[in-house]
TrEMBL record:
A motif (Q motif) lies at residues 84-112. The lineage of its organism: Eukaryota, Metazoa, Chordata, Craniata, Vertebrata. This is RNA helicase. PROSITE patterns: HELICASE_ATP_BIND_1, HELICASE_CTER, Q_MOTIF. Residues 298-465 form the Helicase C-terminal domain. Keywords: ATP-binding, Cytoplasm, Helicase, Hydrolase, Nucleotide-binding, Nucleus, RNA-binding. PANTHER family: ATP-DEPENDENT RNA HELICASE DBP3. It holds the Pfam family Helicase_C. Residues 117-287 form the Helicase ATP-binding domain.
Length: 470
């Protein structure tokens, strides 16, 4: 299919070239983008774009939510449509074939509401927020593919993504879903994709990063923005996190024709994202899917008092010796601690892997994938590296170090994220906290904060540990 979308053999070669460029980009030294898109550089700083890409790479299916979708219509008096099947959308046959070929049987929760609005006549603008993995990308790709006119050979749909790699991921979804729409082609407006001066872009869908798109539109005049009929701003929360991207996006949006359909997507909706969304999308409908709340109700929490790092390690070994552990994830506060622990455990014959911020996104994705496949039993990581990554199938979490904020206050949110589960799945979990004596007050604060009991275990008392029934 790629060759069709890319326009015959030349297109296939182009795809190949960009793909090899893509893998080069995952090597930090070869990062041609010059932005922090592939590695977490600073402890404490969360790389939203890298996390978003990681989650996409490791996700195998839709994340369904039990929360209902909130809809705010531009015109509250117009009837609200939702669809339970893709057939109801009266899509082009080739597009429907593409959707089924991807294994989609029915619209996801957000798609039920968003698709009728996105495909309505006249086109409607939309701001949509729902957690990562709920089907947003698939929804706007479907909207773009259903609105292009394959016979018109110029850019008609423009999608902005925060990084090169995320743009390529979206392009892959266009290629998959558009598998049978043989005359529709996609083009990447990303740095490194050089277009000769005076070349006419004949591809109907352009996906790119704001800087390069701006350059192609205003400086190099490769794209005529007045001919764009669908404008998508994906991952708005990540976008506004990157300096300059909000302004670039707004400049591009200002040059679009008034009849152009404008769509904005975000996984989160802090005030800053909302303000940006309102600035850039005129007269929007708004769809929100609330995130599932995490709870500690079904988690058995324990702590073990330890004197120093070696002691904590011994306590960990005792747990290992006493209960059958399926898969565990162990959190350390620093990379140094994480590395030290990994070496100790490997020397003692455990199968562990270390997820560290120094690794490239692809390396991290492969480690998580191996862990998910059960190839390693234990994943050791730092919080910065694992935050936002979905490894919730694990039943045992060990806080080798408690999560703290600057000023030595407990980091409650991180504690909850590490060990909390959504109530819906009702799975039981087990959490062990290795506590140095001087850190005990922090643990007590966590206990009070969540109003949930964290029981003390004697690290030496194997019988007591063995009694844990979860
Ligand atoms: N209707 C559907 N039925 C089955 N699978 C689906 C459906 N829609 C999307 N998916 C699949 O679910 C996964 C998540 O979808 P998608 O990437 O569109 O979510 P997203 O909300 O855009 O996530 P992110 O915020 O990370 O970009 C993908 O593997 C996608 O192929």
């Amino acid at each position: 299919m790629a060759s069709l979308l890319w326009g015959g053999d030349a297109g296939a070669a182009e795809s190949e070239r960009l793909n090899s460029h893509f893998s080069n980009l995952n090597h930090p030294r070869k990062n041609l983008l010059g932005i922090r898109s592939t590695t977490v550089r600073n402890i404490g700083e969360l790389d939203l774009a890298a996390n978003s890409l990681l989650n996409k790479l490791i996700r195998q299916s839709l994340v369904e939510s039990s929360h209902h979708v909130e809809v705010l219509q531009k015109d509250p008096s117009s009837p609200l449509y939702s669809v339970k099947t893709f057939e109801e959308l009266r899509l082009k046959e080739d597009l429907l074939k593409g959707i089924y070929a991807m294994g989609f049987n029915r619209p996801s929760k957000i798609q039920e509401m968003a698709l009728p609005m996105m495909l309505a006549h006249p086109p409607q603008n939309l701001i949509a927020q729902s957690q990562s993995g709920t089907g947003k990308t698939a929804a706007f790709v479907l909207a773009m593919l259903s609105r292009v006119n394959a016979l018109e050979l110029f850019p008609q749909c423009l999608c902005l993504a925060p990084t090169y790699e995320l743009a390529l991921q979206t392009g892959r979804v266009v290629e998959q879903m558009g598998k049978f729409c043989v005359d529709v082609q996609v083009m990447y407006a990303i740095r490194g994709n050089r277009i000769l001066r005076g070349t006419d872009i004949t591809k109907q869908i352009v996906i790119g990063t704001p800087g390069t798109v701006l350059d192609w539109c205003f400086k190099r005049k490769l794209i005529d923005l007045t001919k764009i009929r669908v404008f998508v701003l994906d991952e708005a929360d990540v976008m506004i996190d990157t300096q300059g991207f909000s302004d670039h996006s707004i400049r591009i949006q200002r040059a679009l024709p008034p009849e152009c359909q404008m769509l904005l997507f975000s996984a989160t909706f802090e005030d800053s994202v909302w303000r940006f969304a309102e600035r850039i999308i005129p007269d929007p409908n708004v769809i929100k899917l609330r995130k599932e709340e995490l709870t500690l109700n079904n988690i058995w929490q324990y702590y073990m008092l330890c004197e120093h790092r070696k002691d904590k390690y011994q306590a960990l070994c005792n747990i290992y010796g006493s209960i059958t552990i399926g898969q565990a994830i162990i959190f350390c506060q620093t990379r140094r601690n994480a590395k030290w622990l990994t070496v100790e455990m490997i020397q003692d014959g455990h199968q562990v892997s270390l997820l560290s911020g120094e690794l490239t996104v692809e390396q991290r994705a492969s480690i998580i994938q191996r862990f998910r496949d059960g190839k390693e039993k234990v994943l050791i990581t730092t919080n910065v590296c694992a935050r936002g990554i979905d490894v919730k199938q694990v039943t045992i979490v060990v806080n080798f170090d408690l999560p703290v904020k600057q000023g030595e206050e407990p980091d409650y949110e991180t504690y909850l994220h590490r060990i909390g589960r959504t109530g819906r799945f009702g799975k039981k979990g087990l959490a062990f906290n290795m506590i140095e004596v001087d850190k005990l007050p922090l643990l007590m604060k966590i206990q009070d904060h969540f109003n949930s009991s964290i029981k003390q275990l004697n690290a030496e008392d194997m019988d007591e540990i063995e009694k844990i029934d979860y």
